[in-house]
Amino acid sequence: MSSVVTRIPAGQSDAAKQYFSQLLSFETDCWDVHFAQSNSRQDFVLLDVRNAQLYAQGHLPHAINIAHKQLSVESLSHFPDDTVFVVYCAGPHCNGADKAAVKLADLSRPVKKMIGGVTGWLDEGLSLVVG
After folding, report:
1. Closest C-alpha to 86, from 116, 36, 44, 51
2. What is the pTM of this model?
């Protein structure tokens, strides 16, 4: 008798490797962002895509704020074309980071989503910057 977990068999190893490798090319997580920052290895722009009021109430260290609705050629013009953007929003209940990622991709900009957003950051025991 199988469980609801194994009723549909796990994918083949080569397919799993391809799937998860591809997923990691589009996503990062809170701890990896924190680790990069803590080791002076932040080679990306951390982009809070919530509105300015929410950003001011608390955002990740070293993040800049451009609301996803404001992303455009003009708002990104001072960043080199090969800048990697890591986008985040409030958390898993919010799709603002996904909307921002689509816009950045439409603008031919490299992008990853930080899964978990602010909620994930706080769940890791990390602090926000206010102001």
Report:
1. 44
2. 0.93
